[in-house]
Records
---
Amino acid sequence: SNSSTIDANDTNSSSNNNSSLYKLSSIIVHQGRSLHQGHYYCYSTVGNNNSNSNTDEWYIFNDLQVSQVI
């Protein structure tokens, strides 16, 4: 599995055998003293959304500026 895949079975206490794999596609970040004061921005993937691929490109969306994360 790649580093952007989350296995919910690792944290789920139920004993079912259903697969619960999720692919991380976005992260929301807050910087500031409180939820009412500060700044939010987002990292998100763009590209091949195939769960078996590590070729996704990550971008940061910060107000009107979008930049590729290198």
Note: The mean pLDDT is 79.
---
Amino acid sequence: GGTLLVDLGQSIFGAGSFAVVPVVGGAGQFDVFIPPGAVGATVYGQAAMFDVGQPSGLALSNRLQVTVCP
């Protein structure tokens, strides 16, 4: 369960798109190219994972906010 806190219409992967990240031992890694003009930009993310203990079978993380610094 959980609440979707990000707008998939604003996805950096295209409207309605998302990225699939493999998780090993409870941790995952996702590398992103950050263009030089992105300094000062703020982006948001949220993780979802399959969880049979949830009524929908899906669990959502808290929102992640990242501001690009020089």
Note: The mean pLDDT is 83.
---
Amino acid sequence: SRDVLETIANWNYLGHLDLANTDVKDSDLQMLRNLKYLRHLNVRGTNVTSAGVDDLVSQLPQLKIIWDKE
């Protein structure tokens, strides 16, 4: 849920995050943009699109995202 993501967004040193099979969407990913140490993100089985992935990677270029490509 959005409340959980807001909490996670404050975990500054988070390196890996698995959000697979949740109701996450592109707008939710923006809450993660300040996680400078985030290296791996799994969003398989979510409503995330290529636009959301591209936008987050442009802000966190070190990030590897596992997702269901459109």
Note: The CA atoms of residues 51 and 70 lie 10 Å apart.
